[in-house]
């Protein structure tokens, strides 16, 4: 196992461990309040582990193999003992897995059990990414005094709900995840992952979508069916929303996020709730996607988590640390969103221009959107892949409009929440508006910074479509240009709009639409940037 330890250390660029001599106790039985038992493994140094703080990881993806090596080993080698538990209904744990719904009661019962163990060390730190971060928020308002810190990474307190907005169904992420959990315990699942990924891609184009789960995994998935048929406000989702618990969190929280992560808006919302409630919290946002493999969480668990567990002050740093893309450097701020970045509007102009000046009288720009050949998602916010990408081929499509500034004569820094207002009309009542902000270099290469989509009904009437883009911290360099794309989709990240008004789950007819984007004095379409001075 020393070889695995050294490979992880090298891959993650970690400091040397305190020990590589670990012992693992398998299949500890953790009783839940309804009599179900969940299984857990305890990782600890072979000598002296009982005196160490415990890092608690609750995971729906198993607790063995490479996953455990990456999650548990680096912490157990650097000052923790680690309890990694399989959540209800998976990998030997009892009960049935009902995604997201059992984590509060099971999490509280697990903490009660852990505190009672003679080896628990007297202090606990909650750690983990994605679902493993969500389970932390599920118990955040009822933490026992033995819990000293939380470190959620690329996660948030309402998890699935951002994807299920009625004004823009994010299809790819919840569908991919539903397919993953449906097959992860099948024999040879890891080896079959590439084949499974191709099946999922094919399934996303299935009509009607409520049959796509069978195409992807060979059977019906209750979670996928709920995703397709039940929007965020449906009572079915009420029990999994833990946003109201965030402000009541009693321990320091170090939140680790990514600019291209699927959960970024919710994670920033949670951080603001902590700050507004006066809770001790800090935020790190890097140039990462959801699946980025970095050392940040391990280092934060060691530097921040262990200090909290020992009753010490963590190393001093600003509350907010952001990686500013474009500048490609880390910067410190006092809050999110930071002060000093007033809203500025760049208006869409005729002939593909983009400027702070109001638009003149002009005819709208037009394009045709065909859901049978949907505008594709390129890079951006994806569960797998994504991030910054060359948008050249995307912008060459006839169903994508672009608006670009003149060459900037000074740097322009954008940090905060970004939006757009697009005056839009469609030949069909039901249509989507997708807006993407890009940085165009001196070589003409256009690279995405952030984007967002909203769905409209009644779009045959000229409508001011408000589009919330992903937050960003980006510096547009002197000599570059700022570009805005406008289109009507990013498939399969977002479900394609069939144009008929039929529900996504049951729609079978696809209708092409003629779209118009207006930019004139009465209809000043614009992107809204939290920025300093912007060159005209």
From TrEMBL:
Q: What's an example of a GO molecular-function annotation for this chain?
A: hydrolase activity
- The record places domain Xaa-Pro dipeptidyl-peptidase C-terminal at 302-528
User: NCBIfam families under this entry?
Assistant: CocE_NonD
The protein in question is named: CocE/NonD family hydrolase
Segments for region (Disordered): 341-386, 516-536
Q: Which keywords are on file for this protein?
A: Hydrolase
């Amino acid at each position: 196992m020393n070889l695995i330890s050294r490979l992880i250390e090298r891959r993650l660029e970690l400091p040397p461990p305190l020990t590589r001599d670990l012992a693992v106790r398998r299949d500890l039985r953790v009783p839940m309040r309804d009599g179900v038992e969940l299984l857990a493994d305890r990782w600890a140094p072979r000598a002296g582990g009982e005196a160490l703080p415990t890092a608690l990881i609750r995971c729906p993806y198993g607790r063995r193999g490479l996953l455990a090596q990456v999650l548990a080993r680096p912490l157990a080698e650097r000052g923790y003992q680690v309890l990694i538990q399989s959540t209800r209904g998976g990998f030997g744990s009892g009960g049935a897995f009902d995604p997201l719904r059992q984590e509060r009661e099971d999490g509280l019962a697990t903490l009660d059990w852990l505190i009672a163990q003679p080896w628990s060390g007297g202090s606990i730190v909650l750690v983990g990414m994605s679902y493993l971060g969500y389970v932390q928020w599920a118990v955040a308002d009822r933490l026992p005094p033995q819990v000293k810190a939380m470190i959620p990474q690329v996660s948030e307190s309402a998890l699935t709900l951002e994807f299920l907005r009625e004004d823009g169904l994010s299809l790819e992420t919840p569908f991919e995840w539903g397919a993953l959990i449906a097959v992860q315990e099948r024999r040879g699942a890891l080896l079959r992952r590439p084949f499974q990924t191709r099946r999922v891609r094919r399934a996303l184009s299935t009509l009607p979508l409520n049959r796509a789960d069978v195409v992807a995994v060979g059977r019906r998935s209750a979670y996928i069916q709920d995703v397709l048929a039940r929007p965020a406000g449906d009572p079915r989702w009420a029990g999994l929303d833990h946003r109201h618990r965030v402000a009541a969190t009693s321990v320091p929280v170090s939140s680790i996020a990514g600019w291209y992560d699927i959960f970024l808006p919710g994670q920033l919302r949670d951080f603001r709730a902590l700050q507004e409630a006066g809770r001790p919290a800090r935020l790190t946002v890097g140039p990462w996607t959801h699946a980025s493999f970095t050392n940040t969480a391990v280092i934060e668990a060691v530097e921040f988590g262990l200090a909290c567990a020992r009753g010490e002050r963590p190393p001093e740093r600003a509350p907010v640390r952001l990686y500013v893309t474009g500048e490609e450097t880390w910067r410190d701020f006092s809050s999110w969103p930071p002060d000093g970045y007033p809203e500025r509007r760049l208006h869409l102009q005729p002939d593909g221009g983009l400027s702070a000046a109001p638009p003149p009288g002009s005819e709208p720009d037009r394009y045709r959107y065909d859901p049978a050949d949907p505008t594709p998602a390129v890079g951006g916010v994806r569960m797998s892949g994504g991030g910054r990408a060359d948008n050249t081929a995307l912008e060459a499509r006839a169903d994508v409009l672009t608006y670009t500034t003149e060459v900037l004569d000074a740097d322009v820094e954008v940090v905060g929440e970004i939006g757009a207002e697009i005056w839009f009309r469609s030949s069909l009542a039901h249509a989507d508006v997708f807006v993407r902000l890009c940085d165009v270099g001196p070589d003409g290469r256009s690279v995405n910074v952030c984007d967002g989509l909203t769905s409209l009904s009644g779009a045959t009437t000229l409508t001011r479509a408000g589009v919330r883009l992903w937050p960003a911290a980006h510096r547009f360099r002197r000599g570059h240009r700022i570009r805005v794309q406008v289109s009507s989709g990013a498939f399969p990240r977002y479900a394609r709009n069939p144009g008929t008004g039929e529900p996504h789950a049951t729609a079978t007819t696809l209708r092409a639409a003629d779209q118009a984007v207006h930019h004139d004095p009465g209809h000043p379409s614009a992107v809204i940037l939290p920025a300093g001075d912007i060159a005209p």
